Amino acid sequence: MAAKADFVPDKINLLPDNIANQIAAGEVIQRPASAVKELLENAVDAGATSIKLIIADAGKSLIQVIDNGGGMSETDARMCFERHATSKISQIEDLFHIKTMGFRGEALASIAAVAQVELKTKRANDETGTYIEVENSVVKKQEPVAAPNGTSIAMKNLFFNVPARRNFLKSNAAEMRHIVDEFTRVAMSFPQILFTLTANNQQLFHLEAGSLKQRIVQLLGNNYNAKLVSVKEETDYLNIYGFVGKPETAKKTRGDQYFFVNNRFIKSPYLNHAVMSAYQEMIPSDSFPMYVLFIELDPAVVDVNVHPTKQEIKFEDEKIIYAFVQAAIKHALAQFSVTPTLDFDLDASIQQLPSIQQPFTEEKRTAAASGSIFKGFTQKNQAHFIEKGERSDPIAIGLKHWREFYQEGGQKSEERSQNDESSESSFSDFRNQTSDVNELTQLLNTYITVPSKNGFLLIHQQAAHERVLYEELKKASKEKPVATQRSMFPSTLELTPADAAVMEEIIGDLQYLGYIIEPFGKNSYVIQGTPADVEAGNEKHIIDILLEQYKHFSPEVKFSKREKLIRSLARQQAIKTGTRLTEREMRQLVSDLFACEQPNVSPDGNPAYLEFKQEQLERMFGK
Ligand code: ADP
Ligand code: MG
Asked: Does the predicted model carry a pTM greater than 0.90?
C-alpha cells in the first residue's frame, strides 16, 4: 500500500497563457458592451479627437473602434496584447495619480483571448503602420501596412472559442442596449471628442465635438434643451460641474442619471442620494431628476482600483463628497430660482457659500481627513444648511435616510421575487371573509374599506388595480392576444436611437398585449392601435413611460421581456392614488381583486390590502 502511494503524481499545473487570459477575460469582458467600453477608453487615452464605433450583430460578430490618436510602434502593437501590458503605469505609486481611463493592462489581453482581433495602427511620425492579427491569444499574422495615423481595432466573433459564454449572451436588442449605454457614458464625458456609432451599417449617433450641454442634448434628447440648470462649484479639494434637470423634467423612473468622477462613469447610490436630497420637496418623492455631474478631485483621494470594470470607486472621504454634491445642487437650483421653498434669509447666506467658495487650506485638508471638518459643515451659512428642519448633523441624517431608503429598496426587490413564488397564503381566508361588499367607503381618495368577518380590510386602490390588470394581461398574453382597437388618428413616436433599440426589442410582445406599433422611418413609429380600454390620446404617454420603465428594470430582476412589459403596463394603466372612485367603480375593483389568483399583493410585492381585526383595534383602545 505504502509503495503504491509513492506513484501518485503531482497535480499542480501552471495554466497556459491563453487559458489564464480567458479566465481573466471573464472579469473584464462580460458581454460585447464591456469590450466597447474598453476599446473606447483606449482611444480616449490615446488622445484621439475622433472616435468611430462600428458594430455588427450587436457586437457578437464585430466591434470595431477607429481612432485618430497617438497610435503604437511596431513593438507596442505586439506587446499590447500581453497581460499586464500597459503604458499607463510603471510603478505602484502611479496607481494614486491615475489620469487615464485604463491602467490595468488587461483589456486587450482579455479581448485577444476570447475573440479574433485585427489591429492596424500608425504613429504620426512613422512611415508605415503595423497590421496584426491575434486569435486565442496567439499572433497569427504581422506585417507592415499603409494606414492613417491612429489605431483601428476590430474584434470579431466574440467568445468564438468559449461557447458557454457565447450562449449566455442576450438577444441582439438587449446587447445593443448595453452597447448604447456604454457608448453614451463615454461620449457624455468627452464632449470635446467627435463620436459616431454605426450599427449594421446604419448610423445611430453622430456627435460633433462641442459643449457638454450640446452633448447632453444630442444624447438624451431635445426636450432637455431649455430645461438644464448648470452646476459649477470649485474648491481646492474638489470641483463639481455639469447639469441637473429642472424639477419638472423629473421622471417616474430612474433614467438619465450620470455621475463621473475624474471623467470615469461611476455608480454610487450614496452620491445619488445626495442629489435626491437636494431636490427634496421640489419633486414628488417617487420621481427621479435628471443629472449629469462631473466631480474632479485629486486622484490620490479616490481608489478606482476596487473593481475590474472600475465602475465602483472608493473615496477617501465619502461624507465630504456627499455634502459638497448636495450643497452644489441646492445652490444651483436656488440660483436659477427654481426653489420656491427657500427663505430670503437663507438665500442671502447661500450666496456667500463659505464652504463652497473658500478654498481648502492645507490645514483644513488635514482636518478633513480626520473628519473634524464636518463640524464646519454643520454651521449656519453653509450651503447645505438651507435644508429646513434639519437638526443636528445633516450629513449624519442624510446617511441615515440614505440607508433606510436604500436598504428598503433592496429588500423590497428580494421580497418581491419571493412573493411571486410563494403563491398560496392566507388570502383565501379573506376571500371568504369579505362579506358585505355593499358597505364600501373610499378614504383619502386612496383607500377602500371593506367589512370582513372579524374587522375590515383597507384596500389600496392603486396596488389593487395593478394586481387586477396584471393578472388580466398575463392571462390574455397566455391565451390569446389582447383585443385591439384601431386608432382613428394614429400618433407618431419620435424616439432617441437608444429608445428605438428598446422598441425593436419589445414591439412583438407589445402587439400581443394589444398595441399595434409600426416602424415609420428612422427611429420613428406609428401607434396604429391600442387595447380597447386605453383612453384615446393617452397611448403616446403610456408608450413613453413604458419604454422608460422597461429600460430601467433592474438587470438583477430576471423577468422575461413580456413579464416586464406586463408589469409596466399594469402600473401604467392602474387607477392612481388620489383618484375619486364612484360606488360602482369601487365595487368592480373589489370584486375583480378578489377574483384574482393572488389578491393580497401588487405585482411588485407590496400589500394590496391590510386587514384590521376588531379585537386588535379594541386592544389598541385599551379594551
Ligand atoms: P490599459 O488601457 O489598462 O493600459 P489595455 O489592454 O487596454 O490596457 O491596453 C494596453 C496598452 O495598449 C495601452 O496601455 C496602450 O499603450 C496601448 N493601446 C491600446 N489601445 C490603444 C489605442 N487605441 N491607441 C494607442 N495605444 C493603444
Ligand atoms: Mg485600456
From this structure: no
